[in-house]
Amino acid sequence: MMAASPSAAGGFAISGLSVRKSEEIADLIDLFSKTQYRAKEVTPRVEMMEKRCLELFARDYKYSIISNSNGEVCGHYPRQIVFLEYESTEVDRDRFESTVQITKLQDLVNRSKMARCRGRFVCPVILYNGKHICRSATLAGWGELYGRTGYNYIFSGGSDDTWTESEEVPEDDGAVRNGESQLFDKVRGHDIKLLRYLSVRYICDLMVENKKVKFGLNVTSSEKVDKAQRYADFTLLSVPYPGCEFFKDYKDKDYTAEGLVFNWNQDYVDAPLTIPVRFTQNLNIDWTQYQVSSPHALLWSGFSCLSFL
């Protein structure tokens, strides 16, 4: 009968732990790639993940929470949306001083969410050298905007904030266009207030089109083609990157990306690559090759990426 030495036993234990961790990570990635998150449909497994995420954030950061307990702010964002305040150190680990008024931030979020597709408002997700990188959906088009505000108005008993300051219902075409402009002014105005409160200066738009069209209707838009130039005070970068166009094909191929190469010559692809020269002049990159696809097209969710630099 042979017995393993203590060092060998320790090696086996470490090896076993590593294998288990690898399996857990693979299982988590598989769940992430095949399951859509909904804040209203939380399972015990998701609750465990949420708790673990907060524990991991707490190791390195001081943070505040934007409440989204039942998905009332956004049904696709976590129930507890983490706002990273600053990196923590051993010295201040037990002390916390917020850098924002979280109640004001929550109010701005509630007011601005209608401006973005599916209510996916501008949300900080990464803190780097004291600067936040945020994510959001693209701007909502008039179809979604009217649909959502009308829905909220009906189910709020006629007290929805989006409509409380509206004028009487317009009748002629000119008045309709004017009323539409006023609604965009108000809703996108709240979006801009949130951007400014978060000190956002640069907006990176990843849409491959200027406006997404479905059944002949503009369902989403982007800051770069806002007719009223409401986002003119921000530096806009147009960086077309395909992604959501492949979601259905990706699922139909049993979540295998092989062969999913984007066709840049399609009629609806009309967004140009536009990056200010001051960002590119020292990078030594041939930007004319940015449309050359790799064998496996990367999947991306087609959102605007915003950073306060």
From TrEMBL:
Instruction: Tell me which SUPFAM superfamilies the record gives.
Output: (Phosphotyrosine protein) phosphatases II (SSF52799)
Entries under InterPro entries matching the protein: MTMR14, MTMR14_PH-GRAM, Prot-tyrosine_phosphatase-like
Superkingdom to which the source organism belongs: Eukaryota
Name assigned to this protein? Myotubularin- protein 14
Q: Which organism is it from?
A: Xenotaenia resolanae
Encoded by which gene? MTMR14
